[in-house]
Write a structure and sequence with these properties.
Layout lengths: L1 H28 L11
C-alpha cells in the first residue's frame, strides 16, 4: 500500500502549492504601485 501514501503525499504537496500561490497573490496585491482597488 505504498501507493496510497505516495498519492496522499502528492495531493498534500499540490494543496500546499495552491495555497502558497493564493497567499502570494493576495499578499503582494496591495503592494503593487499604481493599483487602485476602487477604480475601474
Amino acid at each position: 500500500m505504498w501507493y496510497f501514501a505516495w498519492i496522499l503525499g502528492l495531493l498534500l504537496a499540490c494543496a500546499c502549492g495552491v495555497l502558497a500561490a493564493i497567499w502570494y497573490e493576495y499578499h503582494f496585491e496591495d503592494e503593487a504601485p499604481g493599483r487602485q482597488h476602487g477604480s475601474t
